[in-house]
Design goal:
single chain, alpha+beta, Beta Polymerase, domain 2, Methane Monooxygenase Hydroxylase, Chain G, domain 1, seven-stranded mixed sheet, 9 helices, 7 strands, about 65% helix, rod-shaped, ion transport, MgTranspt_CorA/ZnTranspt_ZntB, Cobalt transporter
Amino acid sequence: MYYKIENDIMEKTSMEEWENKQDGVALFTSADWEQAVNIRASYLLEQSHDNIRFCKLESYADFLFGTLHIPRKRERNENIGFAFYIMENKLIFIDDTGLVQKNIERISSGKLRKGYTVERFLYDFLISLIEEDVLYLAEIEKDITKMEESILAKEVDDFNYRMLRLKKELSRMYRYYSQLTDLGEGLFDNEMDFFGKDDVATFRIYADRVTRLQSETQVLREYAMQVQEVYQSEIGIRQNDVMKVLTMVTTIFLPLSLIAGWYGMNFTHMPELTWIYGYPMVIALSIVIVLACLWLFKKKM
C-alpha cells in the first residue's frame, strides 16, 4: 500500500507514482516485503521479526532501520511489534498487526499542517503511538490510590498480587519509554542527513515528550513503593497488636499458674489446706490479681 504526500495532502497512490514523488509512505506485510526487496534487506527484516523485543534505530549507508515493540494498554502480557525503513524522502513500514495502517488512515484523514513532509508524518505517527499514554498512566495512579485507601480501610486482600501486577506494568512502560527516548534522540541526531534541518527539531520535541512520560512512570513506581511500605507498616502494626494481646494474657495467667502450682504440691502441713474458706479465698485472690493486672495495663497504655 502506497501513499504520496503532496500539496499538504496524503493519499493513496500507485507504486510507480510513489517512486516518482518527492515524499511518500509505503506499508507492506512481511510476506509482501520479502518478495519486493533484495536479499540483504530481507535478511535484516527476518532478523528483526525474530527479535522484535525492543524499540531501536540502526544506521546503515543508505537507510535507517528501526523496530518498535509497543506494549498493549490494559492487556499487560501482550505487545505489538513492527519494523520500518527510513530513506531520503521515503518511509516504509513492515507490519502484520494492522496498527500502522490504522494510524496512517487516521493521520491522512485529518487536517495536515502547511508544508507537510515525510518527516512531519513520521513525527505525527510516533506521537499517535503515545498520545493516550498519559490517560493510561492516570488509570494506573488511580489503581495505586485505591489500594492505598484499602489499606487504611483494613481491606488488604490480595494486596501483594495486585501490587506486583502494577509494578510489573510500570516497569514494562518505563523500559518502553526509555527505548523510545533513545529512538527519538537518534532521529534528532540525523546522522545520515535524511531529514531536513527545518523538520528535524520536531524529533527533539518527541523525545522530550517521551522523557516526560518516563519521568511520570518513575514517579508512579516510587508511589507504588511507598504504598507497599505503608502496607508493610500496617502488617507490622497488626502483628504488634497480636503480640500485645498475647503478652497481656501471659502476664495475667502467670501469677495464677504460680498459685495453682504452689497449692498443687500436696504437702501435708500446707497453710489453709484444711481451712473451710481456703478454696473461696484462692478464687477471690485470683480474681483480685486479674483485676489488678487489667488496671495496671490500662494505666500504662
